[in-house]
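pinging the channel bc i need a second pair of eyes. not urgent but kinda urgent?? the chain im working w is below, pasted from the shared doc
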Amino acid sequence: MTDLPLIAVLVGSLQPDGLTSRVAGALERLGAERLTFARVPIGDLPLYSPALEGNGRSVAAWDAFRERLAPAAGMLFVTPEYNRSVPGALKNAIDVGSRPYGASVFSGKPAGIVSQSPGALGGFGANHHLRQSLVFLDMPAMQQPEAYVGHSGALFGDDGALSDGPGKDLLARFITSYADWVALHARKAG
């Protein structure tokens, strides 16, 4: 058992060894001294529809997802950009976790967002679309440092390990600031 804050990690890509998953793994390793990370899979969640729950009905996969998120002290979103926004699977996960209305598992939890792209813009559009949703979800999203990771394929060596350099420095700065952000919000809540 650890006394470190538990952070739920939602990876927006469904590729198990894709760049987004690798960036998430790098963040988890860089932040391991201050935070405990638990990836919460999103790929098998049925599409959200309010018609499927309520009046004593529930969807087991949705219930299990919400139960995994509930004890988290914060949420780390790591996402690629699809069509200048977040992937559909991540948007669906947000919809599932935020419902039923008034019972969101996200409310009040400090969020960190890292977007990545093999291109130059680093998922800027996805990052900002996600921020819009977090406002409604009542999640204080860390503002600085921003993490738009462009040319993300260049972050990793042939062995798959995170290479030293500006990309690693950005991720290290980000996760250190995010750990501080989580601690700040824990003090406010306590």
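so The chain has a mean pLDDT of 93. and The radius of gyration is 16 Å. — does that match what u expected or am i reading it wrong
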